[in-house]
Design a protein that fits this description.
Length: about 190
C-alpha cells in the first residue's frame, strides 16, 4: 500500500505541464511596491487583493497573464497615509478601483520563462511594462493538492506617466513593482 502511494506521488510529479488556464490564488498573490521618500528612505506598500488568470502553454511557449489589483486594498502599514493615497489626489480608488496588468508576450530563454511584456493600466492610462521573472515554476503543489504555476516578477514604472505627479521630486517618480503570483487549476 505504501509503495503504491509513493509510486502515485512520483507519477504525479513526472506529469508534464500542459496547456492550461490557472486561476490566481489571492491568498498567495500580492503586488507590492517601493518608492524613494525624499532620499531618506524607501517606502514600501502592497495591495492585499488580487485576482486573475494565467494561461500557459509551455510546449508552444505561449500564454496570457491577466492580473487585477484592487487599488483600495493598498496597505503601507499606516492608515492615515493609506487613506490619503486612496483619495482624489493619488489613486482615486472611487473612480479607478482596479489596476490591471495584461500580458502581450511571454519571453523565454530556451525552455525557461524569463519575462513578460504587457500593459499596466492605472488611473485610465495604459503604458507598456516589462516584468522580469526572478523565478517561475509549474508543478504539483502537495499542500493544496493541485497543479499550479507561480513566480516572482519585478518591473519599474514612472508614476508621472499615469498622472501621479504629486510631491515630485520629493517623493520619487520611479516605482519598483514586485508581483508574487501563485495560480492553480480549478
Amino acid at each position: 500500500m505504501i509503495i503504491r502511494a509513493i509510486f502515485l506521488c512520483l507519477a504525479i510529479f513526472a506529469l508534464p505541464v500542459s496547456a492550461a488556464t490557472y486561476t490566481i490564488d489571492s491568498s498567495h498573490t500580492y503586488a507590492n511596491f517601493e518608492i524613494d521618500h525624499m532620499g531618506f528612505s524607501t517606502q514600501r506598500g502592497l495591495f492585499r487583493k488580487t485576482t486573475g488568470t494565467v494561461d500557459f502553454n509551455p510546449e508552444a511557449r505561449t500564454g496570457h497573464i491577466e492580473i487585477r489589483i484592487d487599488a483600495a486594498s493598498l496597505d503601507t502599514g499606516f492608515e492615515l497615509r493609506d487613506n490619503i493615497l486612496r483619495g482624489e489626489d493619488w489613486f482615486k480608488t472611487a473612480a479607478f478601483p482596479d489596476i490591471f496588468f495584461r500580458s502581450q508576450k511571454l519571453i523565454f530563454d530556451q525552455d525557461r520563462l524569463v519575462a513578460v511584456d504587457g500593459m499596466l493600466i492605472m488611473l485610465g492610462e495604459a503604458r507598456p511594462m516589462r516584468l522580469e521573472l526572478k523565478r517561475f515554476k509549474c508543478g504539483f503543489n502537495l499542500v493544496v493538492g493541485k497543479q499550479g504555476c507561480g513566480g516572482d516578477a519585478q518591473g519599474v514604472l514612472l508614476r508621472s506617466n499615469y498622472g501621479l505627479t504629486n510631491s515630485l521630486p520629493l517623493v520619487g517618480d520611479e516605482v519598483r513593482m514586485n508581483i508574487q503570483v501563485e495560480a492553480y487549476l480549478p
